[in-house]
Design brief:
The radius of gyration is 14 Å and the shape is globular. It has no helices and eleven strands. The strands form two sheets. Strands 2, 4, 5, 6, 9, 10 and 11 form a seven-stranded mixed β-sheet that branches. The chain is mainly β and about 120 residues long.
Length: about 120
């Protein structure tokens, strides 16, 4: 089992920045891929960025160049996951979820609200 707890969400003006954190505990050594997803009202949950245990990253087109995913790399796994968000836009408003996948299970945090508003 893996437990994930997000923090760092809040209200920010367009153009501002936020840093989300995800604290991971439990069987983190089995995790292959870590990710941040978001879900806006009335929309499906979508991938924002992912990070493999080997350090490869993937970003959605909508956040490329603005968001950066990183982790506390310890023996090719992570105990913490981060999402640095810059140049935030109104359309970035959503609940952001931390995700971790191992060979048999898929884990989610409870989510943290990010609201971009003037």
């Amino acid at each position: 089992q893996v437990q994930l707890v997000e923090s760092g969400g809040g209200l920010v003006q367009p153009g501002g920045s936020l840093r989300l954190s995800c604290a991971a505990s439990g069987s983190v050594l089995k995790i292959n891929t870590w990710g941040w997803y978001r879900q806006a009202p009335g929309h499906q949950r979508k991938l924002v960025a992912s990070l493999t245990s080997g350090g490869s990253t993937i970003y959605s087109d909508s956040v490329k160049g603005r968001f950066t995913i990183s982790g506390d790399n310890n023996n090719h796994t992570h105990s913490g996951l981060y999402l640095e968000m810059n140049s935030l836009k109104l359309e970035d408003t959503a609940v952001y979820y931390c995700n971790a996948d191992d060979p048999t299970d898929d884990y989610w945090g409870q989510g943290t609200q990010v609201t971009v508003s003037s």
